[in-house]
Design a protein that fits this description.
The complex is a heterodimer of chains A (404) and B (223). Chain A is α+β, with helices and mostly antiparallel strands and 404 residues long. Helices cover 56% and strands 21% of the residues of chain A. Chain A has a 6-stranded mixed β-barrel. Chain B has helices spanning 45-52, 77-83, 100-110, 115-128, 144-156, 174-189, 203-206, and strands at 3-14, 17-29, 34-38, 60-65, 68-70, 85-88, 162-166, 196-199, 211-216, 219-222. The longest helix of chain B has 16 residues, at 174-189. The two termini of chain B are 21 Å apart. The mean pLDDT of chain B is 90. Classes of the chains: A alpha+beta (404), B alpha/beta (223).
Chain lengths: 404, 223
Amino acid sequence: MDKLELFFVKRYLKTPKRNLFRFAFVFMVLGIILSVGILSAGLNLFQGYESNLKSLLLDSFAHIGIQSSYGDLISEQDTETIINQLSQKTEIISAIPSLEHPLLGQKGDKIRAISLRAYDFDREFPYQKYISGGEGKLQSGEVIVGHYLAEELGLSIGDSIELNYPRFDRITPLGIQTAQHRYKIAAIYRSGYYESDRSLVISTLSDARALLLLPQGYSKLELRIKDADKAGIFASEYSDILGHEFIAIPWNLYAESLLRLVAMEKWLIFIVFSFLVLIAGINVISAVSTIIIEKRSEIAVLKTLGASPRSIKRLFALRVGVVAIMAVLIGQVFGALLSWFVEKQTFYHLKGDVYFIDTLGARITFPNLLVVFLVASFLIFLCVMFPLKQIEKMQIIDVIRNKH
Amino acid sequence: MILSAKHLKKTYIDSDQTIEVLTDACLDVAAGDLICITGKSGSGKSTMLHIMGLLDAPDSGELIMGGKAIEAKSPEAPMIRNRDLGFVFQFHYLIEDLTSTENVALPLLIAGHSEAKAMARAQELLSILGLSERLRRYPNQLSGGEQQRVSLARALANSPKLVLADEPTGNLDPTHSKEVWDLILSLNKGEFKQTFVIVTHDVEAAQAADQVFELVNGILIPA
């Protein structure tokens, strides 16, 4: 920036009302604010969706699940051995054995496929924070039911649900023999992750074993670690430690593709919404062209006084640029307010069966703010520079002659 | 010699009609000269001045400055216009969004001087031209005569070798017109010894100049 450009920038900032707040800029500024606002809000909401989904996935499932390599149950003795083997691993927050089995849940003539998960409630229950009604500590004969499952079967706390275990090992001429037990609903589980809320039934270990006719053992050891993003690395390390009998499976083996899809959608939306900024750029082109026509004499004077066309172009670019950058920043604030409003509104909810989670959340991150700022500024910069070519073509003598 | 214009020729084409504005215009400007060019409207006075100021290019002929040929389209032209030439037009061409001081400081800033130095020099010039009370005024807050004096101060900012003035009083009432002429004369005859080439249709006022030329049929004739 040379002395002349620096002088003008200082002048613009010192007296913005006189130099920057011009009628020609009104629609340009509005267009930028709106487009950048929508772009920011879209990105904030997708970021929020991605973060919420990931967070719910991480909260709803073990970060690393240790299972038998052969699909058998892990004995209680082996479970203790594994816990001891991994006890030196400081990254592990908790190690909770669980039993999991698909079953059928029934209330009257309504039947739904469910996933039974059983924990030793004297040990540790990992989903305490998702208990939305009732007691999170179960007694024998009690279960916790997912929110949507309860809704679909018309159940509430205090009601009973029948869990059916089809015994495929006992097929009689009358059909498949089914083990049935009735449980009292002690609490409702609501995480916001639709699949869990629609299918999960949680019971005590003893009840689950009784229903499934299992004397002892667990289906997996659920590990939660400090940095879930490193689950893959740690899982591989634990598999090596535990030998061929057991396998450590990281959470992202199942969920990574879903999260990648969501991230890809986020950037696709970003690209689509970036076109809005380009459309706003048409207003920028128009505003810059207007100001060039309006300031023909000024351009001719500066050229006469010896300023180079390049320097004059930069002066105009800075003048419009300062306004455009302010509009981009205001647009980002508008986007933040818009995403906050969308998050707080109560008249629209996500359909959990379509979008996995049922709440809209926004998340503003510095990298996203920076990306929106840089992309919007770059697109607007292109739109500013395009009409400035006229300055090079403008002949001093034409302006002076026309004034005569 | 500060500037020599040799055999300048310039034609315009206006709807199939070729107008020969300058046919063989020659002019030598020496340091300290005050030269007036007069002529009828449309005789090419302004064109002559624009060519001498490197704002327009002749069809043929040449301009010599400091022993070197100079051209309007050469890369050096903006620098020559900034450092060696000053311009005053009939319309003041001041930048509306800048104060008098800032307008006068522009050629200095373009030349690369610091803002502080440029503003100090601008204030000094405006004070010399009797505008010390108008330093922070915007052009629309000044009278026509004051605007033209600011314009003159701007032309003098880089202490140019030559100031080219195109009808500097053409847009002023007689009182302000005399004021500006007196100022030009004092700048030429006083300590500045500023060289001027002035285009004017005011033959009476032009008589105060050292040399007066009339542009007739594209040729400069001593009047």
